[in-house]
Design goal:
The protein is of the alpha/beta class. The chain is built from 12 helices and 13 strands. Helix 5 links the parallel strand 5 and strand 6. Helix 1 crosses helix 7 and helix 4 runs parallel beside helix 5.
């Protein structure tokens, strides 16, 4: 297949590009390089059938020609992180919603055979039931989560109205090599790895007993491929590890001292995907246990040498907007 990956030079996108190449598909990686890096594609850049295009999904006319002749579209481009989305809601809407509309229209007009969208489990907000099924109420608590869900609604609407064969994958706590090493305060792995590399204590939120459905990036890439290879359309499916792990367990695996920082409003005590649907419909399940995934990151820890090293004071400053705008809505594992 001739495939196009938006956000192809990003964290998940680059791993997906590698998998597609390994499966014998042609790959066009399209990325604005706002957060993606060409370095992420170095292992496949010189291979035949691989091409990179620097383009922004917000530029509908600019991206449209690159969709010509494409069979499969994987839409992973977008803006992430909680605090910047609260501070810049218009930019998040423009990129995550209007940008998704542009990708859908380009895919529709080029006659794409499949489109798979990267949605976010943050759309569930603070779920009432764990493990959380796809039928759980959608309750986004901040603009990033809202705009990712709005993008999903567009994808499923285009599948229904325009018969574009499209699916959405709701990703839970993806981690792995090539995750972002710069930018806003965000994912726990990036924060902890930089702290470990520089001999600083891990900044654990609350008591550290909160759990997360940490899902390794290569497993997530396989889920995208399985979705593209299926004949299914108009569905949203969870992508999770099949388990959940405490932050304290993560700290134990990484090894190091700890300082505790205040709990943040609107953060669930648990994220835990019910993956029965994707296992039944696509035959997919995660294969990388947390212990192996964490060891892989430790083995590649030098990648975080230039990453910001967060401490309690800088985190307090970075999350001030978070505390100001979000209400406490945490819940416990049911």
């Amino acid at each position: 297949m001739k495939t196009l990956v938006t956000g192809g030079a990003g964290f998940i996108g680059s791993h997906l590009c590698e998998l597609l190449v390994a499966q014998g598909h042609e790959v066009l990686a399209l990325d604005s390089l706002v957060s993606g890096r060409l370095q992420n594609l170095k292992t496949i850049a010189s291979q035949p059938g691989v091409r990179f295009v620097q383009a922004d999904i917000c530029d509908s006319a600019g991206i449209a020609p690159h969709f010509e002749g494409v069979d499969w579209v994987f839409h992973l481009a977008g803006l992430a992180d909680i605090v910047p989305s609260i501070e810049q809601p218009g930019q998040y809407f423009h990129t995550n919603v209007t940008g998704t509309l542009n990708v859908l229209e380009a895919a529709r007009h080029c006659g794409a055979k499949r489109l798979v969208y990267a949605a976010s489990s943050s759309s569930y907000g603070v779920p009432e039931v764990y493990p959380t099924r796809e039928t759980a109420p959608i309750k986004p608590l901040y603009p990033y989560a809202l705009t990712k869900h709005m993008g999903e609604e567009l994808v499923l609407h285009w599948a229904r109205v325009y018969q574009l064969p499209a699916m959405s994958l709701r990703l839970f706590n993806v981690y792995g090599t090539r995750s972002r090493t710069s930018g806003a305060y965000g994912a726990v792995f990036g924060v902890f790895l930089a702290q470990k590399l520089h001999g600083q204590p891990f900044t654990v939120v609350g008591d550290g007993r909160q759990t997360r459905d940490f899902t390794y990036v290569t497993d997530v890439a396989r889920a995208f491929l399985a979705a593209a290879e299926s004949g299914l359309s108009g569905l949203a499916l969870n992508v999770g590890s099949g388990d959940h792990y405490s932050v304290n367990r993560l700290v134990e695996l990484l090894g190091g001292d700890v300082v505790h920082i205040p709990r943040r409003p609107g953060e669930p005590d648990c994220t835990f995907a019910d993956v029965g649907q994707i296992r039944r419909l696509l035959g997919w399940q995660a294969q990388v246990p947390l212990e192996r995934g964490v060891q892989t990151l430790i083995d590649n820890i030098d990648a975080w040498r230039e990453a910001p090293v967060w401490d309690q004071a800088s985190i307090d400053q970075a999350t001030a907007t978070w505390f100001r705008h979000l209400k406490e809505e945490s819940t416990h594992v049911a």
